[in-house]
Specification:
- Chain A: It holds the Pfam family SERTA.
- Chain A: This is SERTA domain-containing protein.
- Chain B: GO terms for molecular function: protein phosphatase regulator activity.
- Chain B: Belongs to the phosphatase 2A regulatory subunit B family.
- Chain B: This is Serine/threonine-protein phosphatase 2A 55 kDa regulatory subunit B.
- The complex is a heterodimer of chains A (249) and B (433).
- Chain A is an all-alpha fold.
- Chain A has a domain of 55 residues.
- Helix content of chain A is 54%, strand content 0%.
- In chain A, helix 3 packs antiparallel against helix 7 and helix 5 packs across helix 7.
- The longest helix of chain A is centred in the first third of the chain and has 20 residues.
- In chain B, the strands form nine sheets. In chain B, strands 1-2-3-4 form a four-stranded antiparallel sheet, with no helix packed on it. A four-stranded antiparallel sheet of chain B has the order 7-8-9-10, with no helix packed on it.
- By secondary structure, chain B is mostly beta strands.
- The longest helix of chain B is centred in the C-terminal third of the chain and has 6 residues.
- The chains are: A mainly alpha (249), B mainly beta (433).
- At the A-B interface, helix 2, helix 3, helix 7, helix 9 and helix 10 of A face strand 6 and helix 2 of B.
Chain lengths: 249, 433
């Protein structure tokens, strides 16, 4: 049906699932499907490094979808118990496999780390810690992918976390305001706004016109992290443009 | 690829057809004058002018590139020999003048033909320069540049029926421009706190006859009609068009597929048409609580929404259009009396669909060189949603979702349509007897 001949599909019609999930007899439970949709949505919203401003309409629609799922999960109590057991394992595997897919699909992905699913857990970590944090610099978000991944699944969900999740989602849109990024207040605020600074946010989202599962799973790198290739590339472009201005003036 | 077509628009006479592409180019086609000896064929469209409308830019403040892709082209009505059109990318709107030059002056006294200056002492006689014919040259020159008025991405431009003003809409704001001077903002839905943002503007259009009325559609499937006479900032709508949700079809994707990708008034201005992901709806401006007609474009995709969300196809923005205004359309051999009676929109697999409002019949056609020989009648296609696939039917799973027809246009006076696939423009006309 789609370009890359993906076997993995979402819960589209029972007849499809039986064909594609070879060897698995049971149809995935609603909860698992819903969790899978949530994961996919968060990945779509993740902040990847892109040169072009993201599509606001798409971002808003995905964020609204995430909120809907979250609300439903809260209502039926599953938000309280995202378990790390059977579903957690399956989800981890899926994340890993998509990471591998992601690496092979993009030229500039060499050397990059895990999808920014981890970044959302980072915020949970921060808020869970309850200290008025020193800001975790955005560079640290690119560390040890395994730690971040496991954090997501081990996290115990409380009402607080739900609220924080909501907040981190909202921050994505907050930064579309013309706030000056990395202002002094941001530096010392409880929430790590520097991660969601304007540059990172706007360069993060894809204006994705391509087909295929992988294309939406850009690996994360922050604009402040100079270690990654694409950042270097962007810095070079910046440099060229700055040189142009200097020369012209 | 840079030549992905991103917009298609006939001018008011239908003689010219403009396309914009991802590389910022505008290509204008011109219809050949009808050949008197060959009365059975209408003129073909040939390239008339090509120019670079927009270049890629870099926003230094945000460290982002601004795409040169042309989002919309709108023609101004012709007032003199030259043609004018508005073309826009995400941030900047430009007014272009397209003029023909088929004569040039010759016989200057002080200049040679190649432009070099003559030594005045060698001039012994005087002559009057005259215009001599030359090969037709079509020149495009930018007359106005309307910049720095949109923080977000421009999705629509619409010229007012007064032909002096136009509107431009981005995700959160709509601005009104005078073609001579700069703009003012007439709609602003940006929340004070961006955390509260849940809805964006997706399309906007002026009413064809009432120069103070316009509509804009949203990502939540609503359409608001505004009257500029009511207040300077049209934050309050005069009318809100919204269909209540069908609870039996509710899913996590309901909102996304309700997002309106295009809105177009009928020629009379009595109706408007909206396109959402799966359907086309016709609204009577006098009835806000539901559309008067709904046409399913590709309902078989409803069970595939999750996959389409996964590969982002669910965010594809399909446009729609009415048939041309002056001619009554004979559709499938049936005469019709309602002037705005056919609606057309695109789908996947290079399919496009037409719906006849009077007979309620519909047809699926394909824009593809492989499957249609030139000058033959297009064969209707059918998608097999489920069950046994009949011969000549195509199953949903073999549809190519890379081949999408987002942009279509209908000649304003004749039954000629322009259909843009990803890289190609197809022009079809009805069979003349």
């Amino acid at each position: 049906m789609f370009v890359r001949g993906l076997k993995r599909k979402c819960f589209d019609g029972e007849e499809d699932i039986e064909g594609t999930l070879a060897g698995i007899k049971a149809i995935p439970s609603y909860n698992l499907q819903r969790q899978s949709l949530l994961d996919m949505s968060l990945v779509k919203l993740q902040l990847c490094h892109m040169l072009v401003e993201p599509n606001l309409c798409r971002s808003v629609l995905i964020a609204n979808t995430v909120r809907q799922i979250q609300e439903e999960m809260t209502q039926d109590g599953t938000w309280q118990m995202i378990n790390a057991q059977s579903t957690g394992q399956a989800s981890l595997d899926r994340l890993v496999s998509t990471d591998i897919l992601c690496r092979s699909s993009r030229d500039q992905a060499e050397g990059k780390h895990v999808p920014a699913y981890g970044t959302f857990s980072k915020d949970f970590e921060n808020d869970q810690a309850q200290d008025s944090s020193e800001t975790m610099s955005t560079a640290s978000a690119v560390q040890a992918p395994r730690n971040l991944q496991s954090n997501v699944w081990e996290m115990e969900n409380t009402q607080e976390n739900k609220g924080n999740f909501q907040k981190s989602l909202d921050q994505i849109f907050e930064t579309l305001d013309n706030k000056s990024p990395n202002s002094v207040e941001d530096l010392f605020s409880e929430v790590d706004n520097s991660y969601y600074d304007l540059d990172t946010m706007l360069t993060g989202m894809m204006s994705n016109t391509k087909m295929g599962h992988c294309d939406s799973l850009e690996t994360f790198s922050s604009s402040t992290n100079t270690a990654s290739n694409s950042n270097c590339k962007s810095d070079l472009n910046d440099l060229d443009h700055i040189v142009e201005i200097l020369v012209e003036s | 690829a840079a030549d992905i077509i991103s917009t298609v628009e006939f001018n008011h006479s239908g003689e010219l057809l403009a396309t914009g592409d991802k590389g910022g180019r505008v290509v204008i086609f011109q219809q050949e004058q009808e050949n008197k000896t060959q009365s059975h064929s209408r003129g073909e469209y040939n390239v008339y002018s090509t120019f670079q409308s927009h270049e890629p830019e870099f926003d230094y403040l945000k460290s982002l590139e601004i795409e040169e892709k042309i989002n919309k082209i709108r023609w101004l009505p012709q007032k003199n020999a030259a043609q004018f059109l508005l073309s826009t990318n995400d941030k900047t709107i430009k007014l272009w003048k397209i003029s023909e030059r088929d004569k040039r002056p010759e016989g200057y006294n002080l200049k040679e033909e190649d432009g070099r200056y003559r030594d005045p002492t060698t001039v012994t006689t005087l002559r009057v320069p005259v215009f001599r014919p030359m090969d037709l040259m079509v020149e495009a020159s930018p007359r106005r540049i309307f910049a720095n008025a949109h923080t977000y991405h421009i999705n629509s431009i619409s010229i007012n029926s007064d032909y002096e003003t136009y509107l431009s809409a981005d995700d959160l704001r709509i601005n009104l421009w005078h073609l001579e001077i700069t703009d003012r903002n007439i709609v602003d839905i940006k929340p004070a706190n961006m955390e509260e943002l849940t809805e964006v503007i997706t399309a906007a259009e002026f009413h064809p006859n009432s120069c103070s009325t316009f509509v804009y559609s949203s990502s939540k499937g609503t359409i608001r009609l505004c009257d500029m006479r009511a207040s300077a900032l049209c934050d309050r709508h005069s009318k809100l068009f919204e269909e209540p949700e069908d609870p039996s079809n509710r899913s996590f994707f309901s909102e996304i597929i309700s997002s309106i990708s295009d809105v177009k008034f009928s020629h009379s201005g009595r109706y408007m048409m909206t396109r959402d992901y799966l359907s086309v709806k016709i609204w009577d401006l006098n009835m806000e609580n539901r559309p008067v007609e709904t046409y399913q474009v590709h309902e078989y995709l409803r069970s595939k929404l999750c996959s389409l969300y996964e590969n982002d196809c669910i965010f594809d923005k399909f446009e729609c259009c009415w048939n041309g205004s002056d001619r009554q359309v004979e559709f499938l051999s049936l005469c019709t009396s309602n002037l705005s009676n056919i609606v057309m929109t695109g789908s996947y697999n290079n399919f496009f669909r037409m719906f006849d409002r009077n007979t309620k019949r519909d047809i699926t056609l394909e824009a593809s060189r492989e499957n249609n020989k030139p000058r033959t009648v297009l064969k209707p296609r059918k998608v097999c949603a489920s069950g046994k696939r009949k011969k000549d039917e195509i199953s949903v799973d073999s549809l190519d979702f890379n081949k999408k027809i987002l942009h279509t246009a209908w000649h304003p006076k004749e039954n000629i349509i322009a259909v843009a696939t990803t890289n190609n423009l197809y022009i079809f006309q009805d069979k003349m007897n």
